[in-house]
Amino acid sequence: MSENIQNKLLGFITRSFMVEREEIDLDKSMIDEGIIDSFGLIEIATFLENEFHIKITEEKMIRANFGSVHKIVSFVKREQTQ
Amino acid sequence: MSKETVRCTKCILSSAFPRIQFDEKGVCNFCRNEIYFTTENQSIANAREQITNLLNEHQGKGQYDAVMCYSGGKDSTYTLMLATRQYNLKVLALTVDNGFLSPVAFENINQTVDALGVDLITIRPSSKFFSPLIKASALHDIYNPKTLTRISSVCNSCISIINIAALKLALEKKIPFILAGFTLGQIPANSIFYKNNYTFFQESREPILNKLRNLVGNEVDDYFCISDDLIESTESYPYNINLLCLDDPSEDEILAEIKKLGWISPKDVDGCSSNCRLNAFNNFVHTQKMGFNPYELELSHLIRRDKLSREDALRKIAAQAEIMSLKPILEQLGISQQEIEQL
Lengths: 82, 343
Ligand SMILES: [Zn+2]
Fold this sequence. Notes:
The complex is a heterodimer. The longest helix of chain A has 16 residues, at about 1-15. Chain A contains four helices and no strands. Chain A is about 60% helix and about 0% strand. Chain A starts with a helix and ends with a helix. By secondary structure, chain B is an alpha/beta fold. Helices cover about 50% and strands about 5% of the residues of chain B. Chain B has helices spanning about 30-35, 40-60, 75-85, 105-115, 125-140, 155-170, 200-215, 220-225, 230, 245, 250-260, 280-290, 295-305, 310-320, 325-335, 335-340; strands spanning about 65-70, 90-95, 120-125, 175-180, 195, 240. In chain B, helix 3 (about 75-85) packs parallel to helix 4 (about 105-115) and helix 5 packs across helix 6. Chain B is globular, with a radius of gyration of 20 Å. Chain B starts with about 30 loop residues before the first helix and ends with a helix. The interface between A and B is medium-sized, with 30 and 30 residues. The structure holds zinc ion (ZN). Zinc ion binds near residues 10, 11, 28, 30 and 31 of chain B. Zinc ion binds near residues 10, 13, 28 and 300 of chain B.
């Protein structure tokens, strides 16, 4: 399941932010890497809400959940099982 | 930009735009990608439904329903009209005067708030702070390159100040919504409404703020940050909403409506602005530095949505200022012509 989440997320990121899959380090912050800016984070959060039917309140928009692709995928998994 | 600029044959993105690729017909990858973007209308529909629910839930609870970032430009004037007349919101308008607003913009602001019966607060940051900020934003690499694909560095500094001032006001007065006049193209369809986690937002901006502190001084914090006291006493953050994206009117439709309020078009601004005299300078610097006009992305989006013809878009960015005409602004900011030419 997490592979599926990751593929969908990467599909969204590569399409929306015009980056190649190879440029994304799955363990690094996409903001620090310059792939997205803070607006991009909001785009990603909205995408996750619509795609995975979860509710992301602002308390959940923290580095521990959004600090990398891997962190986002684990976050989505946790939210889905709740 | 020279006359030989190579542009996409459908939109106006130029060959200098980051990550652009043209196919054999000269159509760019942004236009080709757009074909698969059926999600945009879906996002708008989603946002409309959720915004309606949010407004129903929070409207009419306090003195004001919303703070509106009001620049006096055509888009924010139309949005203020939508907010008060169509959505019946009690709005507190907030204007940040950067010292370069066209005199006509002020007449438009006063005319509009009077016509709509809206309270207005104006903030004018000291030029002792603001001029060095503009200079630093224009001459140094401050922002994420991703940000600079859609907005010039100076505009972004200005908008950051406006956003923080609006957030401060909303938190102090416990106002549930912040409105701005962004259109689709300026912001992605996924960001029509959102709530921010301020702490994380600030944390991710820290490298940017550090550059600005070094160049401008620690006053940066007064304009780019919210005090810890206010953050600690905050239970709930406001929603940011861009009502204009739900309505999605064309420029002609906007102009026709706001003229009824008494709004008139300033003549001392460039083709891409309807209120700010700094815009021509910002575009000049951005084009000089990045090789493309900061409005290319937004105007191209409008072309793809059939809201603007390619010819009109080209006309808007063609009227590029000559460096000589920017002289008064350069003097006011304490920037030499040489500093600009060396970018
Ligand atoms: Zn194109």
